[in-house]
Amino acid sequence: MQVGFTPVADDLYREIILDHYRHPRHRGRLDPADAVVEADNPLCGDQIDISVRFDGDQLAGIAFEGTGCSISQAACSMLCDEVSGGSRARARDVADRFRAMLVEGGSCDDLGDLEALQGVRAYPVRVKCATLPCNALLQALGHAEDRP
Fold this sequence. Notes:
Elements: H1 7-22, E1 35-41, E2 46-55, E3 58-67, H2 70-83, H3 88-103, H4 124-146
Antiparallel strand pairs: 1-2, 2-3
Pfam families: NifU_N
Protein name: SUF system NifU family Fe-S cluster assembly protein
Organism: Candidatus Aeolococcus gillhamiae
C-alpha cells in the first residue's frame, strides 16, 4: 500500500531535505577514526565517506564527506544526526529501520528527520541514493567491531 502525502506534508518534507542538503550536519572527517568507509553509487555519481569513532559502546563521533544529489547528501546528514551519541546497537537499528522504510515500506516511527525521505520509495532509482549512507554506516559499524 502506497502511503499518500498531503501537499503540506510534501512541502514540509522537501524543506527538511533541502535544509540538510544546504546546511549539512556532521560534515567533515574524524581524525582519529575507528573506521572510515568510502561508498559510491556509480550509476548516478553519489560518493560518501563516513568516519566513526567510539568511546566504548557509544558513538562518540561521526562525520561524512561527499558529493552527489540532494537526496544522498541530505540522507547522510540526517543519518549522522540521528545516530550521533547513541550506542552501536541503536546506530545499527536506525540504519536497518531506515533501509526497511525505503526498500520494504516498513514503519518510519522514531527516525527523526529521516522520516522526510519516506516519499523517496515512490522513485526506485532514488532509493539507492537515500540508502547509500545507511549502507556505509552499517559497513563502518562492522569494521569498527572487527578492530581489537
